[in-house]
# Entry
Amino acid sequence: MNPSTVSPSPAAPGGGPGTAAVAPPATAPDADTGRAAGLRSAALRFSMLWVLLLLVAAATVLYPGFLRPANLQDILTQNAAVGIIAVAMTFVIISGGFDLSVGATYALGSTIFAGVTKSTGSVALAGVCALLAGLAVGGANGTIIARWKVNPFVTTLGMSSVIAGLAYVYSNSAPFIVDQFSFQYLALTAVAGVPLPIWILLAVFLAGALLLSQTGYGRNIFAIGGNEEAARLSGLRVPWLVGSAYVMTGVMAALAGMIDASRLGVGQADVGATVALDTIAIVVVGGTSLRGGEGAVWRSAVGLLILATLTNVFYSLNISQHWQLIAKGCIVVTAVALDSLLRSRRT
# Structure
């Protein structure tokens, strides 16, 4: 072949004659896509935090005294009990369970704490008895659900009726009014100017966050909620782990009942009707999935602050409690619907 008839190859950009053209790798669009996905993920992950910030901003406009230290202290004190239960409920829901008996256990703890104090004069003994009652309730729930494989919804709904009945029987359907100063120590004592219930709330949230995110126990709870059968096949002690989560809710519900009984100076069996709804709302609004395997204690803290802020604003605007219940129910349904929508889009 005559060399003069061979046409040179087109020059590549930046190359000499006869060099084959090579397309540059298309990395920029991929990087942009990755950044966009990361931003979307972060926005979804912290979406309720943005909601909280917007809500606080709106609250300061609607109620100028909202950010006063005294008002913020009142908000946390009044919501300390449900916040404490919500930490334990976070573990139960992440494990794929549900506990509707916390309201009745709260009432039982309140009743026993006041009743034993009134009959013996010993606040310490009353506190131990109330916590042991919560432990027994949680142990019964955990055994029925984890060992006997009964549906959590049915179990805790039935146990709620049993526990409420026991509280009424123990109190003879009458409130225990306690005027002993030591009985109110739990609620009225202040440390560094901050009421003790707030310190207890912060301690429970901190301990729960560390337990869930920094320990093998917490990782196992996530594993069970994600796929219980796979967790069992991998060697996890699923019944013990699931049962322990219900024991936690039982003890925390009894503690919450003690705190509110101490704050009010009375223990009675007909309290706690909305406690289960409130605690589940806190956990779900914070972003923990009702389907299990996903959530965090810090999310429940955000959920608590959102609902506590709404309640405070409702009261400051003299909105009826009936409308508050309607609003809470709508918030829970909306949060669950959004969770289902986001999960379906990810799959």
